[in-house]
Automatic annotation (TrEMBL):
InterPro entries: Sugar_Epim/Isomerase, Xyl_isomerase-like_sf, Xyl_isomerase-like_TIM-brl. Residues 84-287 form the Xylose isomerase-like TIM barrel domain. Keywords: Isomerase, Signal. The lineage of its organism: Bacteria, Pseudomonadati, Bacteroidota, Cytophagia, Cytophagales. SUPFAM superfamilies: Xylose isomerase-like. This is TIM barrel protein. The keyword Cytoplasm does not apply. It comes from the Bacteria.
Amino acid sequence: MKTPSRRSAIKTLAGTALTFSVIDSLAADMEATKTAFPALKGRINHSACKWCYSKIPLEDFAKAAKEIGLTGIDLLGPAEWPVVQKYGLTCSMAQGAGKGINDGFNDPRLHDELVASYEAIFPKLKEAGLKNVICFSGNRHGMDDQKGLENCAVGLKRLMSSAEKHGVVMVMELLNSKVNHKDYMCDKSAWGVELCKRVGSENFKLLYDIYHMQIMEGDIIRTIQQDHQYFAHYHTGGNPGRNEIDNSQELYYPAIMQAIVDTGFKGFVAQEFIPKRDPLTSLRESIAICDV
């Protein structure tokens, strides 16, 4: 049996030391990755609104969102859906129909145009495997809220059979008219719930924006517990300021998220705050806060 030389012994030891060094380094990297991206509990489908991260190209944002643990991205048009789907994400709230926030279903003069617009996007949503599409009441423009309620119900009912056929849910967003969207009509949860009842279809529901409703009426958790069957989607945001949902603002999101989970909700909760710090760090922190 050949006796190993001193040189070969040193080389073996050096190789062994190098191997252990590499293993230690890999272990440290894995631990750092676990710390940066902890495993999510899986009780909430996390999403984020792309417009809040406008400086980040969609493809880069989709990659980062996937790493953080998001399963969807909100408010994307048809040309953008394939980009996020390439990374195993979905467009959790689609846009691409209607006339925007100010002009909506409360104006009967717009009904024909709005119906045609949504009927055109329904087949695209179905083909892409998407479910939710956003819609709006429109601004009051001097109109009485009850009249607007009647008008919205008339216009939306025209679309329900087509929405049902394509497996699409039209989701009207609740927005505040005090700070961000002056004169917007669907600015109270009770008004939106009554509209759902009048439309009378599971294919029309509400987007309950926690930030907006905190400004308009507060009582967030009680409203979620009471009216959750009418809410297809949730948005977050820190108040005041619509910034990070951390300790700098008045809403306590862990309790709000727990209330949502306790209702049996299976839809998406999308972050919709405007980051004041590094945007992806803030997004990662917000997901950790909301992952109850």
